[in-house]
Amino acid sequence: MIKIRNIQKSFGDIEVLKNIGLDVKEGEVVSIIGSSGSGKSTFLRCINYLEKADGGSIEINDKKVQLSKADKKEVSFLRNNTAMVFQSFALFNNKTAEENIMEGLISVKKISKERAREKANQLLEKVNLKDRSKHYPSQLSGGQQQRVGIARAIAMEPKLLLFDEPTSALDPELVGEVLTLIREIASENRTMLIVTHEIEFALKISDRIIYMKDGEIEVQGTPSEIMFSENESLNKFLKTFKERV
User: Fold this and answer.
1) In this structure, how many other beta carbons lie within 10 angstroms of the beta carbon of residue 102?
2) N or C: less crowded end of the chain, CB within 10 Å?
3) Which helix (H) or strand (E) holds 11?
4) What is the model's pLDDT at position 24?
5) Nearest-CA neighbor of 193 among 52, 11, 60?
6) What pLDDT score does 242 carry?
7) Rounded distance, CA 70 to CA 49, Å?
8) How far apart are CA 114 and CA 37, in angstroms?
9) What is the spatial distance between Cα 242 and Cα 245, in angstroms, rounded to a whole number?
10) Nearest 5 degrees, angle CA 110-CA 114-CA 119?
């Protein structure tokens, strides 16, 4: 169980997160939906300590970290137990696909270069990119870059996988391959938090869906509960999707 309590974050006078609290069970897939500016991505970034929260805590494996005053050891603990897949891929342009996956294994996990290379190639095979191991990001399509990003995150064996709009930077024809891969990963009993605008995908993959509005969790429930919710704000947000289906 991962326990997230009272996360607060402001940028200047703008309060972006307002005491967000959430429990995520081991193996649970939770999707987060909501309009732009609702705080979804900031929430993930605070969990991974890419943004320093103003308050709140995260507890993983009975170890609690107070986010506003975490020391280097605690930040390292959070980043060892959570891994982010970014919407913009965030690969090292001067490293090959193989080297991008190896980087964290060597620098964070402190495993040997030989073992890191072996693991990187196993994961590249898993994401159907074994033949692209020596290619640089500029030589890969957006979908291929994102699959490398996902392999990099899995390599760290985190307690919690974080996906921040993983398909938003992709051309429409490449979205399917990445969503298919995420479904496969979810079937492996991995614990995942997914920020996404792909509502149909969220409904199919999630054990639970959270709807955020103005920095707060407005509604949460099973996919069925979300679709048939009577919450006016949520229904307004889902209206376009419901009309489409």
Assistant:
1) 23
2) C
3) strand 2-11
4) 96
5) 60
6) 67
7) 9
8) 43
9) 5
10) 80
Q: Are 94 and 136 in contact (CB under 8 A)?
A: yes
- Residue 169 has a pLDDT of 84
DSSP H or E run through 150: helix 142-155
Residue type, 139: Q
What is the identity of the amino acid at 21? G
Closest CA to 216 of 22, 11, 52, 13: 22
The token pair that represents 125 in the structure block: 């095979």
Alpha carbon 30 to its chain centroid, in Å, reads: 10
Phi, psi of 211 (to 5 degrees): -105, 120
- Do residues 32 and 40 lie in contact, with contact meaning Cβ atoms separated by under 8 Å? yes
| Tokens, residue 14 | 């703008």
Tally the residues of the chain.
Answer: 245
End-to-end CA distance of the chain: 35
Amino acid 217 reads I
The CA distance from 194 to 42, in Å, is: 13
In this structure, what is the dihedral angle of CA atoms 132, 143, 81, 214, given to the nearest 10 degrees?
Answer: 170
- Low-confidence residues of the chain, pLDDT below 50? none
pLDDT digits (tens, 9 = 90+) for 173-230: 889 889 999 999 999 999 999 999 999 999 999 999 999 999 999 999 999 999 999 9
Do the beta carbons of residue 190 and residue 28 sit within 8 Å? no
**Residue 167: both structure tokens together:** 């398909």
Q: Are 230 and 218 in contact (CB under 8 A)?
A: no
How many other CB atoms are there within 10 angstroms of residue 213's CB atom? 17
